[in-house]
Prior knowledge:
- This protein is α+β, with helices and mostly antiparallel strands.
- The protein has 4 helices and 11 strands; from the N terminus they run E-H-E-E-E-E-H-E-E-H-H-E-E-E-E.
- The chain has helices at 20-28, 94-100, 170-176, 179-186, and strands spanning 3-5, 41-47, 57-60, 67-71, 74-83, 143-144, 151-155, 195-202, 212-222, 225-234, 239-248.
- The longest helix has 9 residues, at 20-28.
Amino acid sequence: xxxxxxxxxxxxxxxxxxxxxxxxxxxxxxxxxxxxxxxxxxxxxxxxxxxxxxxxxxxxxxxxxxxxxxxxxxxxxxxxxxxxxxxxxxxxxxxxxxxxxxxxxxxxxxxxxxxxxxxxxxxxxxxxxxxxxxxxxxxxxxxxxxxxxxxxxxxxxxxxxxxxxxxxxxxxxxxxxxxxxxxxxxxxxxxxxxxxxxxxxxxxxxxxxxxxxxxxxxxxxxxxxxxxxxxxxxxxxxxxxxxxxxxxxxxx
Length: 252
């Protein structure tokens, strides 16, 4: 029997749709943990339609190798295991990313026409929205960092997001990996469209009380598809999670 999945308004990206990373992570959590999975096995989530908020959707888990999220006859998303073996660039230090933060598109006025008077590229986005209060949004403010070919965000999660073990739930790790990929293109003068696909792996627990750097870098463009990589790196430079993204179209 299908399970229900509802995305609360708190976890939106665009004003009336779920954040792609959060939705993808929420679906990825439904896959059983397989000890026989390969070293590079991630979960690939393809977003097929805008994600409604505060609306129960049907998550069909009858096939453990392929999950489908639907609303009535509309396919919202589907997911399956997929290989993910990214060459992650060395991340800037937390201090360097913090110093670059004021230049983040998340903190620049007048970039978004859908939210009048809103601050930043996506003012109400749970990942990068500067207008979302602390404790409700992740506030991942990625910015260009001198010497790094991409963007980076100095980030520490609000402790209210921690689970019973003090770690960030997998869906919130996926959320933090979302916007830096788009910001990497914005730093190159390209405003991409919406997230179409995300393949990610969470490699180890992510304690909510630690400092991290979230990086995003451009991989390449194929017609309307803009490919990006993102990663969450701890204070020792260890990669805790990584993702490959496909952003669809451009907003010129």
